[in-house]
Amino acid sequence: MSRQEVICFEGRFYVVTEKDINRERTIFYGSNKEMGEIVVKVLGEGTFWSTKEERRKCILTAYRRGVEVNGEDIYLGVAPIGELIKDKALILGPPCTPRSEHDIKKALLDTPLEYALVLKRLPTSGRLDELLSTRDAQWIKALLQHLILHVKEMHKRAKVADMADKYGLRFGSPGQVMNKLNHNIRWFEGSLIQKGLREEYADLLERLRLVWAWDKLPLLLEWRIKLNPKHIIIEAHGDLHLGNIFCLIKDGVILERVIMLDLIDFYDDYFCMDRLSDVAMLIVEVEALLGKVAWRELMMKEYLGYESNEVIARYLLRLYMIEKAIVRAAVGLDAIESQSIARGDKCWEPISRFLSLADRYIDMLESERYAVDKCLATLV
Q: pLDDT tens-digit profile of 297-341?
C-alpha cells in the first residue's frame, strides 16, 4: 500500500492492515483499537456477477446465508459503498441486515449503490487447517468427530432445495447431477490443457469418464431420493474447504461452536446439492492435508451413520469425493498464472495430492460396485 488506507464503517475508521485482491473480489482487513478487526468483501466483475445488479444480489445473499448457518454476531451487515477512493479510503453507508428473500428485494430497491459484506475477523489460530496441522492424533480425532457432528446438524437445519436448475432439471435428479459432473470434468480437462498436462493425465481423464458413464449411476441417484425423500437435496454450504472453517478453542478445549464462512452465494447450482456432496469436500480436504486414510474413514463413518441406506450413500459419497478432488485440482491449476508448472514448485504439491486422491478414490469406487449391484437388486 502506497499510503495508509482506511475503512469508514458506522462512523468509525478502521486502518486497512491487509488486502486480498483477485479478479473476482477484493477483501479488506481493517483494525480499530476500540472495535477490533473487521473483514470487508467487495465484488469485482467476476464470472458469475458481471453486472452491478448481480453483484448486489450476491452480497445480500451472502449475508442471508451466512447468518442462517453461523448466527448474527459474526456478520455486521451489508453496507452500501458510498465512496471508494483508491489507496485512500473505503466509505460505507449504514448497513442493512437482510434475513429473507423479501428483505433482499427491498434492499435492492432501497439504493442503486454497490454493496459490501462486513463481518468480524476471526483469529487464524482457530482456522481448521491451522488446528489440524499443529495437534496430536487424539486431539485431531476429537476435533474431526466434533466437526462432522456440526456438519450433520447444519444439514438437518438447511432449507430443502425443492426447485429446478436453469435447465428445468430438479436439483438432485439424475439429469441435473450428471450435467454438473460432466461440467466439472470438462473444466478439469480444460485446466490441464492450459498447463500442458492433458497427455500426462489422459488415463485419469478416461477413468473419470468411465465412472461418470456407469449405466447404473442414474438408477442409484433415483433410489437415493426415493429411500429418503426428505432433506437429501438441500441449500448446502457449497465450499467446505479448510480455510473457511473456524473452531473455537479455549485453553486447549474444543468449544461447541463451529463457524463456517464463505457459503456459496452466487449460483444455485453450486449450493443446491445432495448433502453428501457438501461433506465430500471437507473429507477430501482433510485427507489432502493430513495424508491419513484413518481420518478419512473416521469422517465417512461418522457422517454415514446419518443415512438410511449406507451402501448407496457410501458409493455416492466416494463419487462426490472424486468430483471434489478434481475440482480442487482445477482451482489450483487455474490459480497459477504461468503456462507451465515445475514439479518442485510449492504450488504444485497440493494439486498433485488432489490428483493422486482422485485416482485412489476411483479404485475404491470400483471395488464397491459388487455391493452396490446387490443392494440395487433388492430394491428394483
A: 999 999 998 787 889 999 999 999 999 999 999 999 988 876 666
Buried/exposed code over 233-243 (b: 16+ C-beta within 10 A; e: otherwise): bbbbbbbbbbe
Task: Quote the mean pLDDT of the chain.
Answer: 88
- Mean pLDDT within 351-375: 94
- φ, ψ at 210 (rounded to 5°): -65, -40
**pLDDT confidence bin for 44, thresholds 50/70/90:** confident
Radius of gyration of the chain (CA): 22
pLDDT at residue 1 is higher than 50: no
On whether both 106 and 177 belong to a single domain, the answer is no
Quote the pTM value.
0.90
- Between CA 241 and CA 3 the distance in angstroms is 34
Q: Which of 109, 43, 110, 101 is nearest to 68 (CA)?
A: 101
Check which CATH number belongs to the domain holding 194 and give it: 3.90.1200.10
How many domains does the chain contain in total?
Answer: 2
Yes or no: say if 39 and 121 are a contact pair by the CB < 8 Å rule.
Answer: yes
Pick from 123, 146, 143, 148: nearest CA to 132: 143
Query: What range does the domain containing 141 cover?
Result: 125-379
| Residue 32 grid cell | 480499530
Asked which of 86, 121, 156 is the last residue of a domain, the reply is 121
Residue 52 sits in the same domain as residue 144: no
Percentages of the chain per state (helix, strand, coil), in multiples of 5: 50, 20, 30
Domain assignment present for 1? no
